[in-house]
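# step 3/5: fold
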Amino acid sequence: MAYQAFASGGRLSTPRLVSRVLDAKGRLTRENPAVDAGRVPVPARDTMLAGFGGVVGSSTGTAFGAFAPYPQTPPAVGGKTGTAQVAGRQNTSLFVGFTPIQNPRYVVSVVVEEGGYGAETAAPIARAIFEALNGLPVGPVASLAYVGGN
């Protein structure tokens, strides 16, 4: 829900599984509209968008290596890497991002159990997904090392 708020210009809405139901002929039989649950203040949203953009586009960003060089300038992707630690297991790799940054159309979440760090495994997979979504040539996913697991 948090990333949805950035993708919708700061509007928070109650999560729903189905937005509408169509019959076999494509006619609307039921609609389940989003319910407004408040707004993220514009200054807070702008600060967060800048931070998400820096994760991918700044040379000090945790996902910079996975996205550089990105075929669009400036990179039209913002996101957040993550690493979850589970006792007795390898780290779980996470990346959540969206594109384009200023008026997002797509949100992508990648979780790789026992995949290592977010920037090493999940972010390169997300990059390939974003390239496809943006109609760009999809390159090989940069060195994903197998770190173990079942």
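# step 4/5: annotate
The helical segments are 2-7, 42-57, 64-67, 118-133.
# step 5/5: archive (pending)
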